[in-house]
Amino acid sequence: MVTKTEETQLNRLENQVDNGGGGAWEYLCLVRKLKVRRSEKVLKHGLSILNDLKQRSSLGSDEWTLYEQVAVAAMDCQCLDVAKDCTKVLRKRFLESKRVGRLEAMLLEAKGSWELAEKAYTSLLEDNPLDQAIHKRRVAMAKAQGNISVAIDWLNKYLETFMADHEAWRELAEIYVSLQMYKQAAFCYEELILTQPTVPLFHLAYADVLYTLGGLENLQTAKKYYSSTIDLTGGKNTRALFGICLCTSAITQLTKGKSKEDKEGSQLQSLAAKVLEKDYKQRAPDKLPQLTTALKSLTLSS
Amino acid sequence: MGLALIVGLLGLLILFHAAYSTIQYRGLLKITEEEFSGPPFDVVIELFLGLLLCFWAALTAPGKFLSIHPHSEDNSLFLECRIVSLPANLDFMIFNHRGKAFPVEMDLKLRQ
């Protein structure tokens, strides 16, 4: 998970490296640690280190990690020659490595040689049927080819074995959302909340899915999860604040004032609206009129 | 906090003294060739007193509890440590995206 401090640090390092202030290796390490996708910059700065013999030799055993990082970034940027060269260097150094084998299969993927990549992954899985990374690559490959149903099947099969893999649950949830299969997506987000209850973004995504599903019960649950997002972020999540407003408005329309929750709901509404107005005053005062209009249209103006 | 530590140390000293007294008492019984049925009454009292003092110190020394809520005043580091984004799901990274149509316009080569 990327925290506020880490995000600030990453942006600072990125600016520093882009402006020639050094610290390329620290930047690459942070990108790897935070698992952010900055392929173009990784490729540029990673190659500058690898092409400088003095810098490269100072890395020690981390040199090979950098080769791998640059290879994947090169594939992502369609610089397949660079990816091929990096993979060759790694293969020369680690002759029997399955990890390099996976990298070679990924290179085939990047080229669009799906059948060859599939063969490579199958042979790697024969050696080690429990290699999670390769199972995930097969899912990614099916998704890349547009075979979403195959990707879903494989992911479900994968999750039967590796139930605690939250990255896979998240991927499955995102695929389901893209297919508008919201009930299934909700189940995936429930699993994610169970495994990582302190991550507010999962609460938020779950609330979004429930709000989209609609219906009184779902809306009430969505409101609770938007509230928990606000609680976990210290009131700093604008989307959750809007979610509270929208949920309360929708619940009011559905119940037509029959609900006993009305008083509590309207209090929560006005609180969320106040926080939103305060936030907009601070950060985007020019957009405040639009916000006020939007809140009025939801009969929420504070 | 300071008082609790002093009381705790006192409790420990009393416990050690009780243990030492019991050892001495058993040594005395060996000399008089009597059977050991249990420590003397004053040592038992001493043990309970030491135990009570240690308990009291253990319960008060750790200090006050911090709030469980992440945004409370106690957790001043919260704003810096709050999660702002999820990592990219790199295990499921796919390569046939719009980058294929707009390849990187840099003359990049790996020099061996």
From TrEMBL, chain A:
It is found in: Endoplasmic reticulum membrane. Keywords: Endoplasmic reticulum, Membrane, Repeat, TPR repeat. It comes from the Eukaryota. Belongs to the EMC2 family. Part of the endoplasmic reticulum membrane protein complex (EMC) that enables the energy-independent insertion into endoplasmic reticulum membranes of newly synthesized membrane proteins. InterPro entries: EMC2-like (IPR039856), TPR-like_helical_dom_sf (IPR011990), TPR_EMC2 (IPR055217). GO terms for cellular component: EMC complex. It comes from Glycine soja. Residues 100-209 form the EMC2 TPR-like domain. Component of the ER membrane protein complex (EMC). It is a peripheral membrane protein. This is ER membrane protein complex subunit 2. PANTHER family: TETRATRICOPEPTIDE REPEAT PROTEIN (PTHR12760).
From TrEMBL, chain B:
Pfam families: MMgT. Keywords: Endoplasmic reticulum, Membrane, Transmembrane, Transmembrane helix. One of its GO terms (cellular component) is EMC complex. It is a multi-pass membrane protein. GO terms for molecular function: inorganic cation transmembrane transporter activity. It is found in: Endoplasmic reticulum membrane. The chain crosses the membrane at residues 45-66. The keyword Transmembrane applies. InterPro entries: MMgT. It comes from the Eukaryota. The keyword Secreted does not apply. Component of the ER membrane protein complex (EMC). Belongs to the membrane magnesium transporter (TC 1.A.67) family. This is Uncharacterized protein. It comes from Glycine max. The gene is LOC100499690.
